[in-house]
Amino acid sequence: MSRNLKWSLLLILFLTAVALIYLAPSVIGELPGFLGRILPRDKIHLGLDLQGGMHLVLEVQGQKAVESYVERVRGDLKEDLKRKRIFVPRLERVNGDQLYLEVFGGREEFDEYIKNNYPILEEVSTQDQGKYQKIIFRIDEKQADYLRRYAVEQALETIRNRVDQFGVAEPDISPQGSDRILIQLPGVKDPQRAIRLIGRTALLEFKIVDEEHSLQEALKGKVPEGDVIMYQRREDPETGRVSRVPFLLEKKTLMTGEVLKDAQVRFDDFNQPYVALEFDPRGEKMFDRITAQNVKKKLAIILDENVYSAPIIQERISGGRAQITGAFTMEEARDLAIVLRAGALPAPVKILENRSVGPSLGKDLIDKGLKSIIIGGILVVVFMVIYYKVSGAIADSALILNLIFIMGALAGLRATLTLPGIAGIILTIGMAVDANVLIFERIREELRLGKTPRAAIDGGYSKAFLTIMDANITTLIAAVVLFQFGTGPVKGFAVTLSIGILASLFTALFVSRVIFQVLLARHMLKQLSI
Amino acid sequence: MEFIKPGTKIDFLGIRRFAFGFSGLVIAASIISIILHGGLNYGIDFAGGTLVQVKFSQPTQVEAIKENLASIGLDRSLVQRFGERGENEYLIRVEKSVSDLGGLSGQIEATLREAYGKDGVEVRRTEMVGPKVGEDLRKKGILAIVYALIGILIYITWRFESFIFALGAVVALAHDVMITVGAFSIANKEFTLPIVAAILTIIGYSLNDTIVVYDRIRENRRRMRRESFAKVINASINETLSRTLLTSFTTLIVVVVLFIYGGGVIHDFAFALMVGVLVGTYSSIFVASPIILTWQQRK
Question: What's this model's pTM, rounded to 2 decimal places?
Answer without folding.
Answer: 0.80
